[in-house]
Amino acid sequence: MITDTAFDIQKTSQSRLDQVDFDNLGFGNVFSDHMLEVEYTGGEWKQPTIKPYGNIEVPPALHVFHYGQSVFEGAKAYHVDNETVNLFRIEKNYERMARSCERICMPFVDRDVFMEGIKTLINVDSGWVPRKEGNVLYIRPFLSAFDTVIAANPSETYRFYVITSPVGAYYSKSVKLTTAEKYIRAAKGGVGAAKFAGNYAGSFLPARKAQEQGFDQVLWLDAFEHQYVEEVGTMNIFFVIDGVLVTPKLQGTILPGVTRDSVIQLAKKWDMPVEERRINIEEVIEAGQAGVLEEAFGAGTAAVISPIREIHHDGSSVTPQETERGEVGQKLYDTITGIQRSAIEDPFDWVHPI
Ligand code: COI
């Protein structure tokens, strides 16, 4: 049991829980009754508050509107039984958010405020954690610049929020990817490894163009040679080529995903050959054409393990042998979701009950 003493808890008198159709959840369009808010002013973080989820009134000069100084995270809470809700590797989210803040030149809350804040918020809104398998409570921490002055300098005022949302699957079917001919997501020395809001905004136009051509998402290639596979933007990417699990190496341009790391650790534990390395897109196309591209899937908190059914690059399209989750993808999905719900053993100490 955690102590609530450090948090000012203001509960709503009007829960919206009975308005939610838990049998038909979308993704990120319904929000739980409460949110965590912590203000940073005068060089220090103030007392964390848990208050009713609702609008925040802000002036048009708000720093984040103009300069985009904002980072976020994605995590999930899992229903186990009527007494237990699990968090999965939440310390990895804290560590990544701390690194994102450093890169975008923002202060960050103490580990305790992040950890206990999320736990307290979920305790307060425990009724919002979906029971049905496959559905979870998505946790969205974010930190944004709150100065009200037109000046392209780091803000001196910030707010850290955590909001939560009961969700279903992010991708309901396997996805079709295309590389982007003239766009890039991130370059070395840039902000690609940070969960920085601008990385997502920058992907919207290329993604829209890809969707207009019948694809679901862009498969990003490196900025320099435009040859090496990076990530999908909403998830990291894995291929099973001739029995080997292959994924792009982290070199500062790819988001270091928590699910990505979990996939690699599990595959190694199962003695499956794993290669984190540069992957030329031509190698993927050739593997597909030679029939040895056994599986391709994305891995991410929102996406979990999402199968890829087509990859298009420079006039060629390949289809993995498995267009839905294959043997490897399914085993990873079952193991990760099983550990998250404490349905199977957790040899890595990844889950922590609230
Ligand atoms: C997540 O996987 O949690 C993300 O933040 C990705 C986002 C596109 C939903």
TrEMBL record:
Keywords annotated in UniProt: Amino-acid biosynthesis, Aminotransferase, Branched-chain amino acid biosynthesis, Pyridoxal phosphate, Transferase
Leader sequence residues: none
Pathway entry: Amino-acid biosynthesis; L-isoleucine biosynthesis; L-isoleucine from 2-oxobutanoate: step 4/4; Amino-acid biosynthesis; L-valine biosynthesis; L-valine from pyruvate: step 4/4; Amino-acid biosynthesis; L-leucine biosynthesis; L-leucine from 3-methyl-2-oxobutanoate: step 4/4
Catalytic activity: L-valine + 2-oxoglutarate = 3-methyl-2-oxobutanoate + L-glutamate; L-isoleucine + 2-oxoglutarate = (S)-3-methyl-2-oxopentanoate + L-glutamate; L-leucine + 2-oxoglutarate = 4-methyl-2-oxopentanoate + L-glutamate
Record-listed E.C. numbers: 2.6.1.42
PROSITE patterns to which the protein is assigned, alphabetical: AA_TRANSFER_CLASS_4
GO function term, MF aspect, one: branched-chain-amino-acid transaminase activity
InterPro entries given in the database record: Aminotrans_IV, Aminotrans_IV_CS, Aminotransferase-like, B_amino_transII, BCAT-like_C, BCAT-like_N, BCAT_family
Role played: Acts on leucine, isoleucine and valine.
Family: Belongs to the class-IV pyridoxal-phosphate-dependent aminotransferase family.
Entry protein name: Branched-chain-amino-acid aminotransferase
Source lineage: Bacteria, Pseudomonadati, Balneolota, Balneolia, Balneolales
